[in-house]
Amino acid sequence: MKKVLFSSIVLFLCISVTKAQHVEFGLKGGLNLSRVAINDGRDFDTKAGAHFGGLAHIHLTRMFALQPEIVYSTQGGKDGRNELKLNYVNMPVLGQFMFGNGFRLQTGPQLGILTVAKSKVGDVEVDVKDDLKAIDFSWVFGASYIFPAGVGFDARFNAGIANVSDNRAYDARNGVFQLGVFYQFKHH
Q: How far is 163 from 132, CA to CA, in rounded Å?
């Protein structure tokens, strides 16, 4: 199922790129404020992290674009002395509504692949990757602004829609607020 979904997304993006009127590539990075919400009331508090990666801004019309990204993201949460460190390779595919003044509204699905999962209590760190699902699904909501020189800023929230816990006794969902800066090469 995962391979079919991933292959479908890649095929859709390849077709979109070949039919697009204008494609701009870029780099991005910034601050993450993440937490893990658990349905048993033991939510992890906010933890600071970072994200960085690349993007392709694909103009489909004058006012609408697709923006697929590949982003490495450090996430997780804190609960007193306990810290949950989760690192993902996230692949959002955002639909962007663009205003003529550089302002953009964006939303879309995001697939995340877990690369690191560690629980740290005090000075002791334990690998907990086997306790979590390898794939995470989120829905992204955000806004951005790009200057004529190609530099831009964005703010977004990645709302976890999939349970990332392998333990059937409870659900755990990621929530990540991101503030970032990006640069689009050859921006028009």
A: 9
